[in-house]
Amino acid sequence: MLFYTVFKPIVQVALRVFFRRLEVRHPERLQVPGPLLIVGNHPNTLMDPLVVAINRRDPIAFLAKSTFFENPILRTILTSGNSLPIYRRQDAESGAGKVSAAELAQRNEDVFGKCYDYLDRRGTIMIFPEGTSISERRLRPLKTGAARIALGTEARHDFALGLHVLPVGINYFDPTRFRSDVFINVGPPIAVAAYAEQYRQDPLAAADALTEEIRIRLERRLIITRDAAEDELVQQVERTFGEYLVPDDEETLYDNFQLSRTLLEAVPFFEQHDPGRLTEVRTRLNNYLGELRRLRLSDEALESNRTGSRVVRGLTTALKLAVGFPVYVYGVVNNYLPYILPSVVAKRATKDVEFVAPIMLVTGMLTFTIGYAVQIALVQYFFHDWRLTLAYGISLPLTGFYALRYWNALERRLRRLRVLRLFRRQPEVIEALLRQRTVIMRMLADARTAYLATHSK
Predict the structure, then answer these.
(1) Is 33 exposed, middle or buried (0-12, 13-18, 19+ CB in 10 A)?
(2) Which pLDDT belongs to residue 456?
(3) The domain containing residue 392 runs over which residues?
(4) pTM for the complete prediction?
(5) Is residue 432 included in any domain, yes or no?
(6) Which of 197, 219, 241 represents a domain boundary (last residue)?
(7) Is residue 435 part of a domain?
(8) DSSP strand E in 325-372: where?
(9) Do 353 and 260 lie in a common domain?
(10) Claim to verify: residue 247 and residue 140 sit in the same structural domain
(11) pLDDT below 70 — which residues of the chain?
(12) Whole-number Cα distances in Å, 251 to 55, 236, 408, 434
């Protein structure tokens, strides 16, 4: 628990840096007093418990697969962080020493007993009932373990303990990319005591019923696609035209979530009622995005060069880039190595998409901490001036963030310049792209009107 208390503030800072936006809907629900069993989907391995834990004031214990505890370093971290191993059949069968079914069941019963004791003390536990991590926007069939723990704990107290199950939907918009977004959608808590009568009559049926209720509440708070083709289409629309479909200047991640849900509801609607329209949108969108990739352009750059103020805005951006260039160079020189190492390590360490972000996060915490400490120590050693050393230390993260923002602005500027250059040399190419874009925008607007007209009745 001491490890958890000491490192939670550090992880909070690291996650706020790693993610561009981390938004929680109904954050007050995460503060429901214990005993509490938090259940969530599991798209991004070790990141999932972290993004939830930093947003709850009380400590959370986690159930993690037993294979994590085989590594002595991970075992020390997990046990210090109040985590317990859960033994899965596939892990026992694939491990170095095979475990019999009876021994596996006994181990998990022991873990369940520890969970009962922890919840008895009005603690909080988080579990991922899918039983495995999967990066696709899906929800796998849920295991009944979470429901059995909840019901078993309450049964010890004749269903008078007051235990709740809290469903939490975790939605990553690009789980492996630094400075992406994550949206945590917290559902209303489920009172386990409501299943008392059913449990007394049939414990297995009660566990199935509670598991089904958890599944329903999680699905309402997640972006779930049926297959890769549907996911690709929806993401193409979101990333290319999302800001036009959600025009609010104060756009939130919940707005993006709602857009994704609406698109995923609209796709099967048009598959059934107007498949020709859906096929045409898909074809035109693929052709348009393919042309943009071929020409190394972006939709944002193409659109920005249509407005009448592009010259003034372009000059303003160029002036800002020129003035900020020295600060950018300073930030790159002092931050490049600790910034680039995490992605290099992650690419070499794993081929599993689900592990990229956690490895980058942990490595980044080490590289920036060690790198900054060494740099600050060197400045103090050579200059012997604590005021200069302090100013230098403060400048490191500030100029690092500035360099990142500067680079993004420079990339956008270069894409806009490519559009202008191509417009001067091959105006017919840009005009054709703009016509394609206009047609797609009109088709999306017409489709939205048709869909909403049907579903608003």
Answers:
(1) exposed
(2) 65
(3) 305-425
(4) 0.85
(5) no
(6) 219
(7) no
(8) none
(9) no
(10) no
(11) 1-4, 71, 73-78, 80-81, 88-99, 247-250, 305-314, 456-457
(12) 22, 19, 20, 25
